[in-house]
Each structure stands twice: as structure tokens, then as C-alpha cells.
Amino acid sequence: MRLQLTTAIVMATFCIAACNNAKSPDTVAKDMATAEQKASTEVAKSENSAAKDLNGAAQKVDDKLVAFNNVAAKDAYNLTIANADGDRKLALAKCESASGDAQKMCKDQAEANYSAAKANAKVVAQSEKP
């Protein structure tokens, strides 16, 4: 029993002492090369993942910007049409003070101005769309 205990202590001492032994320069160089390769691969994967995430986010921003511009163009068109309609109604109300051919010419002019304003609004709306 004493022999087994002594043998176990000696073996444990050798094992502990072996853990602190320096590795050969070739082994250290191989270990460093392996570690550098793993680190390089991990960095490359992280960069690719980040680039993918950024591209996805940029695409979402682009889509939102296009949608925003479309809404803004539609709202600008609607506002222009509303203004033109208001101007037409005012002009037609003024035409009521005239009579005969003067009234007809006045109403025709009001309708022509309204049609021109609508056409212009359409052209502007089309030019603002992406």
C-alpha cells in the first residue's frame, strides 16, 4: 500500500511538472499559425455577416425612401389639384356676374385654366416619381 501511494505521488509530480514544460519552437510555430488562421477565418466571417446585415438594412432604407417619395409626390399632386379646383370654383363664381357671351367666355377660360393646371400637376407628379 505504501508502495502504491509513493508511486501515485511520483506519477502526479511528473504529470504536474510536464504541464509546465516548454514546447519546441516548431510546435509553437504550428500552434500560432493555426491560431492565426482560426482568428483570420473568424474575422472574415464576422466581416461578411456585418456586410450582409448592412446591405439588408440599406435596402430597407432605400425601399422606405422610395415609398416616402411616392407618397410625397401623390400628396403634392393632390394639393395642386385641390388648389386648381378652388381657383376654378372662384372663377366660375365671378363669371356669374357677367351675362351672355361674356359669361360663356369667362366659364370657358376658367375650365381651360383648370385643365391646364391638372395637366401641369400630372407632369410634375410624373417627374418626381423615382
Protein topology:
Elements: H1 2-19, H2 25-95, H3 100-128
Helix pairs in contact: 2-3
Task: Compose a concise summary of this entry.
This protein is mainly α.
Helix content: over 70%
Largest sheet: none
Q: Tell me the radius of gyration.
A: 42 Å
DSSP summary: helix tally: 3
Which descriptor suits the 3D outline? rod-shaped
**Which structural class do you get from the secondary structure elements?**
mainly alpha
Give the tally of β-strands.
0
**Percent of residues in beta strands:** under 5%
Query: How far apart are the first and last residues' alpha carbons, in Å?
Result: 91 Å
Structural commentary:
By secondary structure, this protein is an all-alpha fold. The longest helix has 71 residues, at 25-95. It has a domain at 41-130. It has three helices and no strands. Helix 2 (25-95) packs antiparallel against helix 3. The model has no long low-confidence stretch (mean pLDDT 84). The N and C termini lie far apart (91 Å).
What descriptive keywords fit this protein?
130 residues; mainly alpha; 3 helices
